[in-house]
Design brief:
The chain is of the alpha+beta class. Helices cover 50% and strands 14% of the residues.
């Protein structure tokens, strides 16, 4: 990184940065965070309530804008990617999810689940074909791992690919709960083969590929979620990712995405806390602002402490990632605790807002509903708990 973090403090206790965490950031990190915050304020917040209500997300419109800002695959090097630090990527995710979890999910899937495996394990042709376009937001990617009957146990996947006598791969099966599925130009699909689990780069205009959107969602509504179906989908021999085999491939991608989530969830929590704080100071009952009531102050304090603590956890894990010391179990720590803390903040904020807390005039119920999905995806809270249990006892509680 070009400059060194330095602690600064300008008098008083800032209710939005009580522990002066901003002073722990480098100038570059701070600039990236502020740039993304402004983008979210200008382009996302005025419209996201409507997108959520309508169940839409303008990916084709926003993709090139985010590409121009360098947000897509931003922590990757080369091929048009920004090459920022992991911490800077995390801070961007924090600000994106302060807008909406669907927005951060789009960026996470694009950069960490679709671009990362091509960047880390793809051939040079894969990289040259896809990464510059994906970094620019001109091509959208998705990641096919979860299936209708294999969520927390992806090793039991049924999707399979068989190589024929001519060398082509023939892919059959389906994937479920796939973000960006129906709008993607390319899918990174994981399938069983005679040689173990392999990843495939699948252009979505390939005959035999279909995507069906999942409707009637009450969570992550400003996000495209799909089922993917592969029916004798034929791919050339070089469609396989040559650099990895086995479950290491998809699990490493999930680890990248979970890193962004542990930052992002705190952004959603922060947005709920700030909405509750502003509301409590303005809402008058019994002749005084409700912020003057002891129980309300307790709620606000608990929210503030959780936001500050979660931000410090995320920042510490970001520093570990940037020095090559971050373990997958530590990522599980951050994903598990920061998401559950953010969900509790959202629920508490909803209570502070009373009946207004259930309307889309305020961001709280939207974040609360979204966080119910974030609590489950990229590893459920229970699975991350067992990962940590194995890490501290040395005994695995699941296979």
């Amino acid at each position: 990184m070009a400059d060194t973090p330095h602690l600064t403090r300008v008098g008083g206790d800032d209710p939005l940065d009580f522990l002066a965490i901003d002073g722990l950031l480098s100038d570059e990190e701070r600039q990236i965070q502020q740039t993304v915050r402004q983008f979210v304020g200008d382009r996302i917040l005025p419209e996201v309530g409507r997108w959520y209500e309508e169940g839409t997300f303008p990916a084709r419109e926003l993709g090139p804008v985010m590409g121009e800002l360098g947000l897509l695959g931003m922590h990757l090097e080369g091929y048009g990617c920004a090459g920022t630090s992991g911490t800077a990527y995390g801070l961007a995710c924090l600000e994106l999810e302060a807008g909406d979890s669907g927005l951060r999910s789009f960026v996470s899937v694009q950069g960490s689940l679709a671009m990362f495996p091509i960047w880390a394990y793809g051939s040079e042709e894969h990289k040259e074909t896809w990464l510059p376009r994906m970094a620019a937001g001109e091509a959208i990617g998705c990641f096919g791992l979860t299936e209708p009957d294999s969520g927390s146990d992806p090793g039991s996947m049924r999707t399979h690919a068989k190589q024929d006598a001519g060398g082509d791969w023939v892919l059959n099966g389906s994937k479920m709960w796939i973000t960006n599925g129906s709008i993607a130009d390319v899918a990174v699909v994981w399938a069983r083969t005679d040689g173990g689990v392999r990843g495939f780069v699948v252009p979505t205009d390939t005959p035999g590929f279909t995507a069906h959107d999942i409707h009637r969602k009450a969570s992550l509504r400003a996000s495209v979620t799909s089922e993917l179906v592969f029916d004798d989908l034929r791919l050339p021999a070089d469609a396989v990712l040559p650099g990895v085999s086995g479950m290491k491939g998809p699990l490493s991608c999930l680890n990248e995405a979970r890193f962004g989530i542990l930052f992002g969830a705190i952004g959603a929590g922060r947005a709920c806390y700030e909405a509750a704080l502003d509301y409590a100071k303005d809402r008058v009952q019994f002749g005084v602002p409700i912020a003057s009531f002891q129980l309300t102050q307790r709620k606000l304090v608990e929210m503030m402490v959780a936001v500050q603590r979660g931000t410090l956890v995320a920042l510490h894990l970001g520093r570990l990632k940037d020095t090559g010391q971050l373990t997958s179990a530590q990522v599980s720590f951050g994903k598990m605790d920061n998401v559950r803390q953010a969900l509790e903040i959202a629920r508490e904020a909803r209570g502070v807002l009373g009946a207004n807390g259930i309307t889309l005039e305020y961001p709280v119920i939207r974040h609360m509903n979204n966080l119910e999905s974030v609590y489950t995806y990229e590893g459920t809270n229970e699975i991350h708990t067992l990962v940590l249990g194995q890490a501290i006892t040395g005994i695995g509680a699941f296979s």
